[in-house]
Structures are given as C-alpha cells and as structure tokens.
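Minutes, project huddle
Topic: does the predicted pose make sense with flavin mononucleotide bound?
PN asked that the exact inputs be recorded in the minutes so nobody has to dig through chat later. Recorded below.
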Amino acid sequence: MSSALFESFPLNSTISLANRFVMAPLTRCMAGPGLVPTDIMAEYYGRRADAGLIISEATIIRADAQGYPDTPGIFNDEQIAGWKKITQKVHANGGKIFMQLWHVGRVAHSHFSGLQPVAPSAVKHEGTLPRMRDLSYEMPKALTHEDIQQLVTDYVTAAQNAMAAGFDGVEIHGANGYLIDQFLHFDTNKRTDEYGETPENMSRFALQVVDAVSAAVGAERTALRITPGAYAHIAPDARDREVFDYFIEQLNQRELAYLHLGIFDDSMTFEHLGGRSSTYIRERYQGTFMSVGGLTPETAAQGIANNEFDLAAIGRPFIANPDFIQRVRENTPLVEYNNDMLAELI
Ligand SMILES: Cc1cc2nc3c(=O)[nH]c(=O)nc-3n(C[C@H](O)[C@H](O)[C@H](O)COP(=O)(O)O)c2cc1C
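Predicted holo structure (tokens), as shared on screen:
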C-alpha cells in the first residue's frame, strides 16, 4: 500500500513521526505488583515501534484514579523505572511513545485503593465493574476547590514522571467518560460553582490540566483525547454541544501536539453534534487531529486523502497484529481481532 500514511509527519518543530499510523491507547490490565510495568510489556510495545507513534495504555496518575485491575501507574519510582525499560525498548527500535495520563473519576473503586472515588459531583454511575461483576460502582465524593488544585498538581507530577521515564510526550485522557470528561458533560457535572453550569465553567478543569501540563513539559509534548458525544459511562445531553463548541475554541488558542478523538466506533452519529464525532471535531479544531474508531488501512488512507483527519489511530488491529505496519506496507492480510486475544500480551 502506498499512500500519504507512510510519509513522515511533523507534529511540530520538536517531534516528527515516521508515518501517520498511531497505535491507540489500549488498556491490557497486565501491570505487575505495585502497578509497575513489566518486562513483557516492554517486549509488547517494542514489537510495535514501527508505528509513527505509540500511545501507552491509560496510566493512573495516583491511587484513587484506578477503576480496573492491574492498570499501570506513574506515581512512584518503581513505576517510573518500569516504564523506562519500555521507552528504551521503543526508542531502540526506532519508535516514539507518549504516555496516556488517566484518572477515572467516579468509575474508580475503593476495592483497588481503599479510597472513595472522586468526581465533579456526587452522582453515582449505575452498574457493576467490567470483569468484576460482584463490585457495584460507588457514590463519589464531589471534589472541593482544594481537591481540584491537588488534582491539577498530580497531573503535572505524573507528566513530569512520564518525561523522567523517557516518554516523548503525554496524552491527557479527557475522553471516554473518565474524570476530565465527567466535568465536560451535564449528566455528570451538576456543580453550581465556577466549574459547572456554563460551557466556560465546565471546560475550566480540563483547561487547567492542559495548561499546567503544557507549562511543565511543553505544549509541543502535550496532547489531549476528548469525547464530544457521550457513549461510555455518561448519558448524552444536547446541551453538551455548547460545552464542546467552547472547549474546542479554547484549544485552538493552545498549540498542543495533537487532539485525539476518543470513541470505539466513529460510524456512530450524535444528533446534537450533527453527525459523526470526527467530523464535528475536524470542522472546529485547527491543529493536528487524530481520528480513530473502526479505521482500516483503506479508510485511514481515504480519510487522510479527503482531509478528514491528519493521523489515524488503530486499536484492536494492533493487538491482533504486532506487525501491523509491515503487513499494511506489504499488503499482507491482517489477522482479525477477537476478545480472546486480550488474555495474553504478544
Ligand atoms: C482492549 C481495549 C482497551 C482500550 N483501552 C483504552 C485506553 O486505555 N485508553 C483509551 O483512551 N482508549 C482505550 N481503548 C479505546 C481505543 O483506544 C480505541 O479508541 C478503540 O479501540 C477504537 O479503535 P479500533 O476500532 O481501531 O480498535 C481501548 C480499546 C480496547 C479494545
């Protein structure tokens, strides 16, 4: 296959990608004791270093950020040392890797940390944890102003830790119904202070995190993932549209490395967004836009040719095909993904 996908792409004057295929962040729940990344994870990521960019699996910034078993962390020296082995492997194999910084907010559970989950508002997510059906979601504590300041500081420390571990940059996980996204949607944000009620207020926390992390590690090494159309852990609300209109306009005034859509299937349409999430973002965001969600090599090539996005993130096919890039380059058929593949890191 020959297309613009295999040409190098500069994110900015600091970082250039060898091609436009990105390995999407993929939680694998295989960190070792203490949520320390393992040597097997280094092999797993190292094998995929020919992607233009790897985005790490979501990585928790502190103990109460955890909502799934064995997800890696980036808040102590052992975790930093574990990640160092991964970044070294990826770099030795010629790749680049960003860390995805994660706090799940109200979908955390005290089972993991002994701590009550935190969220913009005390609104519980109904249901049970995936793969841990005996655990129901808990009532979160609504964050105080002090708590919010502390969280911003903790995102910054996590970003600095990621840089100390050798990452090329960080992607702030603002998508998929987790903490930052919970501020951006009316279903989960019931605040009546300067973090709630209006688009400006509801965007405030996300922008504070973006600005503080950018100031600490450089905007050219800071990226963000967002989900304008709620589809996971949050119910959609037509008023969310105004929040994202405002939020994206604010992001246009920053110079982030890229903006990344968070969605599983981008053929989904949202009435209040006027169609697909990717189209909605592309029409508003002026910087580098990374799309995702059911892309194939062919639809990725088309999307780039039609100027629908700049970078194509690939998730499940990268699990099924460690040699995804080589197969696409050589036109070799891809192995089809199935959920059984999640049992092992290959
Ligand atoms: C097993 C699995 C784990 C995932 N983990 C994350 C994650 O840690 N962070 C994130 O933002 N998205 C995560 N996603 C979503 C993917 O990044 C991607 O958006 C989604 O898989 C759609 O792309 P695809 O159709 O190419 O797989 C995950 C998806 C899967 C299937």
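Observations noted during the meeting:
- The chain has one domain: 3-343.
- The longest strand covers residues 53-60.
No decisions taken; revisit at the next huddle.
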